[in-house]
Design goal:
about 475 residues, alpha+beta, Gyrase A, domain 2, Alpha-Beta Plaits, 3 domains, four-stranded antiparallel sheet, 7 strands, about 50% helix, about 10% strand, globular
Length: about 475
């Protein structure tokens, strides 16, 4: 069934004594458009839209766009894996305003440099890994080389820029789809706004019917995917302005306190478990955190020194443009007992970003925190080549920032670090620490997961010590 009509049938099913078959027959003879206009859009019965689901694929979008597509808490999907596929022949996204500008040459030079290093380091890594981890007699040769190459891609993906193009497939409810379209149309990035427009247009058209065509039948997709939603989805003034308003306020405050300067930050570990603190202080600190690059702990100390009036002013900025039906921005999702401030490389963070049963507040991508060096590169004697590329790219990105900040953002490679706040309950912390510390994982997030367990065990030994994790020095390279 078309998603909107499916949701209509299930909504009626829950509100009548009829069987689902009778509800479907009833819906077939009544206007689903009128139903949606009245109950979803006029009366705000948003839960109805949870009952209709769609499968949508995005092809040739940037890695940056893929990250933003996945930002919905209630989201199911997968992106093309940079750990298992060769990205050396991939295309790169170029912002429309960059094409033909004086910054375009610098932008392409950065991407070419990264692409060359990605390609040149792969084969020596495969040779090194195969010599260090010979094929067991019980493992098929094709399976062995697939695993060795995947481990090599684990390393070379540090050189992939956010501009690398990828594919994303998702299964979402109509409700989540509406939120996603709204977020995309409200973005300051032109690529995301274009994707939002394409997504809205796709809802107004019948979906692809390839499966039935392959099966030799013409049944199925002859109606628009979600036509009522397509007419109403639009940019949201609250989401379009709130972060720029917060950034303006924070810029003054952080400059006055020196918290816009990295050398003024207190040195913390890459995984910092924050002590429980007042809910209002948490909200205000998180609002500041989202538009800065400073550690959460330093910002919290500042906020805790403020008067109630200062805190109220920051909260007011976060809600003043909010409309009647607008959800609060995610920075207000506070009150979780376990809060981690984590600084890690973008590539490995992409894996932690997939966890949905927690609240994530990511700071913007930057070169400010430096980059990580994958241990296998050091062991294989390839560290110098990698550092030369990354240092050259860093200088070029700094130059590009002066001309084109959006292009500079897309040029950032996965090896650079990003700071992200993770708020969760203990069960989710236990799940992440156990799952992500396993030998099948990437060394970067394995180290983070192990550290999460150690922090919890130190603070809450009665439950933290029960978390079953695998130390990062326990390896099994051929286990995927």
């Amino acid at each position: 069934m078309p998603p909107e009509k499916c949701a209509y049938a299930l909504a009626r099913y829950s509100r009548s004594p009829d069987s689902i078959e009778d509800s479907i027959r009833w819906v077939h003879t009544h206007s689903s458009e009128k139903f949606w206009e009245q109950f979803y859009f006029d009366y705000g019965h948003a839960s109805i839209a949870d009952l209709g689901h769609v499968v949508i694929c995005f092809e040739g979008v940037s890695e940056l766009a893929a990250i933003r597509l996945e930002d919905e808490p209630l989201w199911d999907g997968q992106a093309k894996s940079s750990r298992y596929q060769n990205f050396s022949t991939t295309n790169w996204f170029v912002p429309p305003h960059t094409r033909g500008s004086r910054s375009e040459a610098t932008y392409h030079r950065i991407l070419h440099s990264l692409s060359e290093a990605y390609r040149l380091l792969h084969d020596p890594l495969v040779v090194y890994l195969s010599e260090r981890h010979p094929r067991p007699p019980t493992m098929m040769e094709a399976d062995y080389w697939r695993r060795i190459k995947a481990r090599a891609f684990d390393v070379t993906r540090y050189l992939l820029p956010l501009a690398a193009t990828t594919n994303v497939g998702q299964v979402v409810s109509i409700r989540t789809l509406e939120k996603q379209i709204t977020r995309l149309l409200s973005s300051h990035l032109s690529e995301l706004r274009t994707i939002g427009e394409d997504l809205r247009n796709a809802c107004a058209r019948p979906p692809a019917n390839l499966w039935n065509e392959l099966c030799g039948t013409q049944e199925g997709a002859s109606e628009p995917l979600a036509p009522t939603l397509a007419r109403h989805a639009r940019a949201n003034p609250y989401y379009m302005t709130v972060y720029s308003d917060l950034a303006r306020q924070a810029k003054e405050i952080l400059h006055a306190e020196g918290l816009d300067q990295p050398h003024r930050w207190t040195v913390h570990e890459s995984v910092d478990l924050i002590e429980p603190h007042d809910l209002v202080d948490e909200i205000v600190t998180t609002l500041l955190y989202s538009v800065s690059h400073a550690p959460y702990r330093d910002l919290l100390a500042l906020v805790q020194s403020w008067s109630e009036k200062q805190k109220r002013e920051m909260i007011e900025i976060g809600i003043k443009q909010r409309g009647t039906h607008d959800e609060l921005i995610k920075e207000f999702r506070s009150g979780y007992a376990v809060i981690f401030d984590i600084l890690m490389d973008i590539g490995a963070w992409r894996d932690l970003h997939r966890h949905r049963r927690c609240q994530q507040v990511q700071q913007s991508f930057t070169t400010l925190h430096g980059y990580d060096v994958p241990p296998p590169l050091i062991e294989a004697g390839l560290e110098r080549e990698y550092r030369q590329t990354m240092d050259t790219v860093y200088d070029a990105i700094e130059q590009l920032k002066q001309q084109d900040q959006e292009a500079a953002l897309y040029a950032i490679p996965f090896g650079f670090r990003v700071r992200c706040l993770f708020k969760m309950d203990f069960a989710e912390a236990e799940y992440i620490a156990k799952l992500r510390s396993g030998v099948k994982g990437h060394w970067s997030y394995r180290t983070v997961a192990w550290s999460m367990k150690q922090k919890l065990a130190a603070r809450y030994p009665l439950v933290g010590e029960k978390i079953q994790t695998t130390p990062p020095d326990v390896e099994d390279t051929l286990n995927r």
